[in-house]
Every structure is written in structure tokens, then in C-alpha cells.
Amino acid sequence: MKNKIKLKGRLKRYVQTSLYLGFLLVLVNLVVYLFSAPAGLVLTGFVLIYFIVVLLLQYYNRPVIMNEMVSFATQYGQVQKVLLRELEIPYAILDDEGHVIWTNEAFEDVVHKGKGYRKSITSLFPSITREKLPGEEEFTELDVAYEDSNYVARMRRISLKEMLESSDIVNAKEYEGFLIAFYLFDETALRIALQEVDDQSLAVGLLYLDNYDEALESIEEVRRSLLTALIDRKINKYIAALDGICKKIEKDKYMIVLRKKATESLRESRFDILEDVKTVNIGNEMAVTISIGLGLDGYTYAQNYEFARNAIDLALGRGGDQAVVKTPENITYYGGKSQQVEKNTRVKARVKAQALREIITSKENVLIMGHRFADVDSFGAAVGIHRIATTLERRAHIVLNDVSTSLKPMVDLMKSHEEYDDDTIIPSQQAVEYAGSNTVLVVVDVNKPSITECPELLRMCKSIVVLDHHRQGTESIENATLSYVEAYASSACEMVSEILQYIGESIRITAEEADCMYSGIMIDTDNFMTKTGVRTFEAAAFLRRNGADVTRVRKLFRENANEYKARADAVGQAEIYKNVFAISTCASEGLESPTIVGAQAANELLNIRGVKASFVLTEYQNQIFVSARSIDEVNVQVIMEKMGGGGHLSAAGCQFKDASIFEGIGMVKATLDKMLSEGELEID
């Protein structure tokens, strides 16, 4: 067999060099013949001897050379195999289905398997499924964990087609198989180092006292300095225990600097400082509450501080008494179990009223819109803003698409009024035509852009005003020229009623408009039973002085028999879950506005003794609407935010598609179970 092996390339030319030199001697011999024939004969003898010696050497040495080459190749392959077996990097060869074919010693040490292990690589690393193996791509890489170590797994495709095509024993013309070279690179130490660096990174926080002035006013003057000192001591001691720095920047504001590692303990304790501060009591009638905003994972210290500012704004906008953690990826909320304290001063309302007046007078047109499926509060607030715009001699339009049965009497009432033109109330398609640089858009009773009546208007109008009483969530209208969001207000109509009193002396509202706004306050407060304060009754009194009639309003909201029966059925079939949650469904057949009936049923369920929160699900327009209500012990806003919605501490809701009513009930129960297990909800 060795005789059939032929040399080629450089080695062949090297071995045949002596023959090439022999031919050169022949040429020299011919030249010598030209000068001397005897000398040429002598040289010819030497040339013949040279060729004989060279041919003999090649004939006898060729087998020796081939033997040495075969021996070297064999030893070289063995050396390669030994080196690969003893390679310090864990290495394995897999077939195209991910089964282990061969492993080296380092790989065997990592996975604690013997030399003959031939199972799928997925059995060792569950995250490496068949779909993640190299297919059409030549190279893949992914992070894997094994026991307490972290690795980067790199896999390279090795084609077998070319090798098998040259084989004499198999036909591999259509074979597309391949092997996979599998490497593991241990990054455990690197990950630990990176984690340590990340843990030591800066976290910036802002801590505000929500009701500092009100708490001080509730105690005698000589004790005020003591209350302030006790609060300072508690806050500083708490932050110092976390190895952080707390600096008072104003009388009721603190700046906090922490290591990111310390924020983990804050999250684990769910910011227990929120409840701890409330225990400070030296005779003050009102417990002190705080709000915290934390900024993490920014690219710069300045960005972390900006995150903290955004977070504290969210915490205050949601009513205070809570902590908000903001990172580039998400926002997390903690606390928020207290109702926001109503501000006795109306300075803010007066300032916002003047700012609204200036914005409206600077434009020619005014568009007013609320949320989708507008309710009485949304429409009433829009009517109030319409009165402001017309008094300031600006053309105003209320954007309204669908009119529910409960809203229809009010819409008909306003349309029949002589001061209202045919285009006062317009749909979204027509509103888009009025949008532009010379139009101001006023958004009432909503601050979440995705659920507004016409989200396109937010992009088309440069001047935007937001008036809302719902707590702010992660999604909010960010490009507003003027934002007036007060979570303590009972309704948007209450806020607009206050603004009307400061917008100018020339404003005179009609009895019909007063009825609309009075209705909004009455519905959102459940006939002045929930979320009412001094300013709520003052706003109602203002509307009564301007012609609002309680009897007319009551007649507007009388419901038909079908709605009454549907609400009664929803209350009657309610399930009491965990002894404190009432969960029910509301039928939508035969009802023009089933979501409103569902909300009414949720309010009714709170009258059952022991019920702390109620949830009523209604299927309407291929969606599931969830109405959530509570009295004071459960924050339903946080629950609904977990399901993609939002609202108030005591009144919230959410919507979702592609689910049945029974699946929706399961989602509500699963959310409640998860929040109870994680300590986000507490029930006695």
C-alpha cells in the first residue's frame, strides 16, 4: 500500500532535486565535448555514476521516508488527541441532534460524568434546547449555568460533507450532516466581579414629607420642633443603617445617596420606613406620611438623579405615602395604602386656572376629550372646560364617540341647549380636522394616553392641558404644556368647578352645565359617600348656587328595569374569595352600557359586611372590563395595575382581550394570590 502512495508538492520537489542537478551535469558534459572529446568522455563516466547512485538512493530511501512520514502522522494525531483530552477548556463534540459523542477531561470534571457519556446536551444544560443548536448559522453562543457556576457556551458547526464525499466506502452526495464543537468558558469569577461593581454603584433617592405643614398645624407650637426632630432622627437612622447618606435639602425634603446593594434590602422590606414614620406621635392628630423616589442603573449619576426626580413626581402624583423605584427598563411601586390628604389651600387651583386662561387665549380652537367610553364625570368636566373656552371667545369642541345610556340624557340635554351648535360634540374623525398648531387640546378625567378618546390628537396638537384626579401610572401624557393632576380630588368635575371660580369674573355657567358637573361629582363619590372632602362640598355648593338641581339630576340617572335586574343579579351571584374579596360577573345582554352597571354592582358589593374589595367582570365589545372597588383597607389601584389597568386607591379598573369571562376571574384570583403571598396585600 505504501508503494501506491505518491509524494507531491514541495516534498516531491525536494526529493527530486538531485535528479534535476543530474540533468544540469548532462548539459555541462555536452559543453565540455565542444572543447575536448577525451575530457567529455571522462565526465560522461562520472555523470553515469552520479545517476546510478542517485537512483539507487531514491529507490532504497523512499520506503524509509514513507515509513517515517506515516509514523510521524500517527504520533502527531496521538499528540493532538492527548492535548485535546487534556485541554483545560471544557470541550465536547456533539452530533447534529445535540447528543454527546466525545468529551475531554475538563468537560467531564465540570459535569461530573464519565468518558462514555452519550446523552443529549439538554440533559446537562436544560436551557440548551435543540432549537438553540447551530443550524444554518455557523456559530451560536448563549449563557448557561451548571450547579453554582456560570458559563458561556459556544457552539460551532463542523460540516462532514466534504470529508465524506472523498470516502471510498460511503456515498455522501446528498448528505448534509454535521458535528458541533461545544466549548464552555467559565465566567463565574467575572460575573461575581461585575455583580460586585454593580452592587457598589450609586443609587440616588429623594424623600418628601407629604403632609408636613398639616401635621405641624395639628399640634401646639412648642411641640413642633420636637416633631420635626423625631422625624429627622428616624429617617437619618434608617438610612444610616443601610450605609447611606441622608441630607436635608428643605424643611420637608431629603436627598438620599445609597449603594445599589442597599436598595435590595429596601425592596425586600417593602420600604417599611413608610409605615415606621407614621408611628411618630407626640400628640399630633395627623400621622406624618412620606414619599420616596429612587433612581437606579442610569449611565451617569445625573441620570440617576433625574430618575429619582421622575420617581418622586410619580409617587406624589399617585397620592403620596409610597415609594417608586425607576430604572431605564421599568418602574416599581411600593406602599400607597393611604388616601392623599386634601389640601386646604386653593392657591394651586388659582395658579392653574390663570395658566389655563393664558393657554386658551393664545389659540383659536379648543378640543376637549376624556377617556374612552366616557362617563358622567368625564363629560361633565368637558362641559365645564367648554364653558371656559366659549367665555374666552374661543371655538370649542367636545370629542365624544360612544354615548352610553347613562350619559345619553346629559348629552341630549346639552345638544338641545340653544348655546350649543351642531358641531359642539364631534367624533374623533372630525376632531382630527381641527387639530393643528393653532389648537389647544384639553384632556380631562384621564392621564393615560392609550385610553383617551382619540390618542392621535395627542400627537397632532402641540399645546396640551391635562386635568385629572386619577393617580398617575407608568404611562402618562408626557408632552403636556400644563398638567394639573390631583389624586386627592373626588372627581374631574370638582377640579373644573374650582378652576371656574378663578378663571374670571365674567364666567356664568348655565343650569344645564351645572347639572352636568354636579352629576359628575355625585357619581364619582357614590352620592357623596366616598372620597369626599371639604373642597368637594364647596365645589358642589358652587354648582348649586349656579342652578344645579338635585331633583333634576336624580331624574337623569334613573335606570331601566333591565339594568336594575342585571345589577341585582351581579350582587346575588357574587363569590366571597378569601373571606374578604367579592368577585362577580355582570351580564351584558340587553344593556346599552353594561360596564357602568358592572361598576355600580361593584359599589353595591362593598355594602356586604366583611368585604374589603369587590371585582365585577363584564364582557362588552369583545373585551373583558373589570371594575374594582374598595372602601379603605385595600388599594385596588395597585391590583389593577398588575393587570394592566389603574385608577384610584378605592376605585380602579382594567381591560383585556382574548380571554373569556371565566379566564378573567382566574386572572383576578391569581393576581390576588400572588400579591398576598409576596406581601403586597395584607388582610386580617
Polypeptide structure, described:
This protein has 684 residues and is of the alpha/beta class. The strands form 4 sheets. A 6-stranded mixed β-sheet has the order 7-8-6-9-10-11. Strands 14-13-12-15-16-17 form a 6-stranded parallel β-sheet. The chain has a 6-stranded mixed β-sheet with strand order 18-19-20-21-23-22, with helices on both faces. Helix 14 links the parallel strand 13 and strand 14. Helix 18 packs antiparallel against helix 19. The longest helix has 49 residues. The protein is elongated and about 145 Å long. The relative contact order is 0.05.
Keywords, please?
single chain, 684 residues, alpha/beta, 6-stranded mixed beta sheet, 6-stranded parallel beta sheet, 43% helix, elongated
Strand and helix layout:
Elements: H1 10-15, H2 17-35, H3 37-85, E1 91-94, E2 100-103, H4 105-111, E3 139-146, E4 149-159, H5 161-165, E5 178-186, H6 188-199, E6 202-209, H7 212-217, H8 224-241, E7 245-250, E8 253-259, H9 260-268, H10 273-276, E9 290-295, H11 301-317, E10 322-326, E11 331-335, H12 347-361, E12 365-369, H13 376-391, E13 395-399, H14 408-415, E14 425-426, H15 428-434, E15 439-444, H16 456-460, E16 463-468, E17 482-485, H17 492-503, H18 511-524, H19 534-545, H20 550-556, H21 561-572, E18 575-577, E19 581-586, H22 594-605, E20 613-620, E21 623-630, H23 636-642, E22 646-647, E23 651-656, H24 661-677
Parallel strand pairs: 9-10, 12-13, 12-15, 13-14, 15-16, 16-17, 19-20
Antiparallel strand pairs: 1-2, 1-5, 3-4, 4-5, 6-8, 6-9, 7-8, 10-11, 18-19, 20-21, 21-23, 22-23
Helix pairs in contact: 2-3, 12-17, 13-17, 13-18, 17-18, 17-19, 18-19, 21-22
